[in-house]
């Protein structure tokens, strides 16, 4: 498997502080991109723990029980993601505020997911900062905390404070972090892993790229892997010139449209090789290559191995 990252990069420790009635959807969209990044990179890039204030079990809004790995006061790391979600106001008390203020010294970054920004603001952690929150609570946050510059956005980062609106935005935020830390190639591969061409894109469109234009182009490529579209046709379908699309994709993903399209097709080929027992010839066809030799040449250039060697080695 190709190593997308620098082997000297440090492992990121992300802790998720859960409260009763947290959103299981938001939790999954926070953790799964990290899990996928580890798998696709072939090594551990991220570690995560589930925390509660007292170290006990917490129950999601859907009744899912999560036993905390530890209590907040005993942990430190690169990022603390605060995730109360529903009925968050009952968690806003002196003990929570003190615990969050104390955690600032132990975490490089404090982040509020879903309604988590409210608890951060109540603890004074967003004073003088730009922040967002789940759209249901935007107006109330503005009125209750005038010292916070509240902005309507999917997620925002202001220094060492991050705020995020909800489950779908959590996925976008984590994908963005993966790209910033480990490169746009890995970001694209993680996003594509959660995307279904048949459903029109299971992952949020914005997760594929930073801009809507590039996201739409990548989604179109993803939907036409077996029978690739010419790049000018992709540009036409999204209402852009080929030159404009090339400029935007280079700025966003660091590669040309042709390069991104080739990578998506090879990601598809690698998945089929590892997860199915169809022939290499059939893998080539399903990945938009005329024959196995054409796939093998492209595969070797991208992953430094051949389709047969990959399947034999299982990695």
Secondary-structure blueprint of this entry?
Blueprint: E1 12-18, H1 24-41, E2 46-52, E3 57-59, E4 65-67, E5 70-71, E6 77-83, H2 94-103, E7 107-113, H3 116-122, E8 130-131, H4 138-144, E9 149-150, E10 155-158, E11 161-164, H5 167-182, H6 184-193, H7 205-208, H8 212-223, H9 231-237, H10 242-253, H11 257-275, H12 280-286, H13 292-303, H14 307-313
Helix pairs in contact: 1-5, 1-6, 5-6, 8-11, 11-12, 11-13, 11-14
SS summary, helix count: 14
What Rg, in angstroms, do the CA atoms define? 21 Å
Structural class: alpha/beta
Based on the coordinates given, report the CATH architecture of the largest domain: 3-Layer(aba) Sandwich
**CATH 4th-level superfamily of the largest domain:** Class I glutamine amidotransferase (GATase) domain
Largest sheet: 7 strands, mixed
Instruction: Indicate the percent of residues in helices.
Output: 40-55%
CATH class of the largest domain: Alpha Beta
Mean pLDDT comes to 89
Number of domains: 2
The counted number of beta strands is 11
Q: Return residue spans where pLDDT drops below 50 for at least 5 consecutive residues.
A: 1-8, 196-205
Distinctive features:
315 residues, alpha/beta, Rossmann fold, Arc Repressor Mutant, subunit A, 7-stranded mixed β-sheet, 14 helices, 15% strand, elongated, disordered N terminus
Give a quick summary of the entry.
The protein is of the alpha/beta class.
Summarize the structure in words.
- There is one protein chain.
- This protein has helices spanning 24-41, 94-103, 116-122, 138-144, 167-182, 184-193, 205-208, 212-223, 231-237, 242-253, 257-275, 280-286, 292-303, 307-313, and strands spanning 12-18, 46-52, 57-59, 65-67, 70-71, 77-83, 107-113, 130-131, 149-150, 155-158, 161-164.
- The longest helix is centred in the C-terminal third of the chain and has 19 residues, at 257-275.
- It is α/β, with parallel strands linked by helices and 315 residues long.
- The strands form 3 sheets. The chain has a 7-stranded mixed β-sheet with strand order 5-2-1-6-7-11-10, with helices on both faces. It has a two-stranded antiparallel ribbon with strand order 3-4.
- It is elongated and about 65 Å long.
- Helix 4 (138-144) links the parallel strand 8 and strand 9 (149-150).
- The chain has 2 domains: 12-172, Rossmann fold (3-Layer(aba) Sandwich); 184-315, Arc Repressor Mutant, subunit A, CATH 1.10.10.60.
- The termini are close together.
- Keywords: DNA-binding, Transcription, Transcription regulation.
